[in-house]
């Protein structure tokens, strides 16, 4: 699998514009919403680096996320992608109650991993119910790995 050309180009920049990178990733997956969090290894908190489509009133809830809480936190904890066909109807407890206020449905969160070390998470979401394919999940995981290489 290879990275989409525009994402690869952004990752090769001397100074990465994380907002542009997230927006290119959101667009690649035909999504409308997304977040990019970086992990503070001392506190084990995920800190928001870039976002798109998150309502302003939810920003305090998504700006800092504990590992293990919500989709991003669970993806970080498990060190694997977490996918949800419809966040609005989820009863598993993976999606936090406030997440439903985003009005997104199909959601995918992946860890930023390199050699088993966690650097953060990236997530994308659609406004409609959607099952992400195995190849889409693998592609977001690959993007996460490439982002991690720039954070080492």
TrEMBL record:
Q: Where is the GAF domain?
A: 19-148
Domain of life of the source? Bacteria
Note the SUPFAM superfamilies from the entry: GAF domain-like
Fetch the InterPro entries from UniProt. Answer: GAF, GAF-like_dom_sf
Query: What's the protein here called?
Result: GAF domain-containing protein
Annotated source species: Sediminicola luteus
């Amino acid at each position: 699998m290879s990275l989409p050309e525009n994402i690869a180009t952004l990752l090769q920049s001397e100074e990465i514009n994380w907002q542009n990178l997230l927006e290119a990733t959101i667009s690649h997956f035909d999504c409308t919403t997304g977040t990019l969090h970086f992990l503070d290894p001392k506190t084990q908190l995920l800190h928001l680096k870039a976002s798109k489509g998150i309502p302003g009133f939810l920003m305090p809830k998504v700006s800092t996320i504990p590992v293990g809480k919500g989709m991003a936190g669970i993806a970080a904890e498990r060190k694997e992608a977490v996918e949800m066909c419809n966040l609005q109807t989820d009863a598993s407890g993976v999606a936090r109650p406030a997440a439903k206020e985003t009005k997104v449905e199909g959601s995918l969160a992946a860890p930023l991993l390199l050699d088993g070390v966690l650097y953060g998470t990236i997530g994308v979401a659609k406004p409609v119910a959607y099952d992400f394919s195995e190849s889409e999940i693998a592609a977001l995981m690959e993007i996460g790995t490439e982002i991690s290489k720039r954070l080492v």
